[in-house]
Design goal:
By secondary structure, the chain is an alpha+beta fold. Helices cover 36% and strands 12% of the residues. The chain has a two-stranded antiparallel ribbon. It has a two-stranded antiparallel ribbon with strand order 3-4.
Length: 66
């Protein structure tokens, strides 16, 4: 009986398959209800300026190398 009870308790611990949707702007697969990390759009409008973020990241990397 103990083994059956243990297995029933652990039945909820299984991993679930992640759901992905296509981004409306760039058509890459992203998680639902999140801004796209490739183009920065969410619900048809830009919420993250990806180009500025990559430039800032490159500048920071260049400063760390000095």
């Amino acid at each position: 009986m103990a083994k059956g009870k243990q297995l029933r308790r652990r039945s909820h611990l299984a991993l679930k398959k992640q759901a992905f949707i296509a981004c409306g702007q760039c058509k890459k697969m992203i998680k639902p209800h999140t801004a796209c990390k490739h183009c920065g759009y969410y619900k048809g409008r830009e919420v993250v300026n990806v180009l500025a973020r990559t430039v800032k990241k490159a500048e920071k990397k260049k400063q760390q190398q000095k």
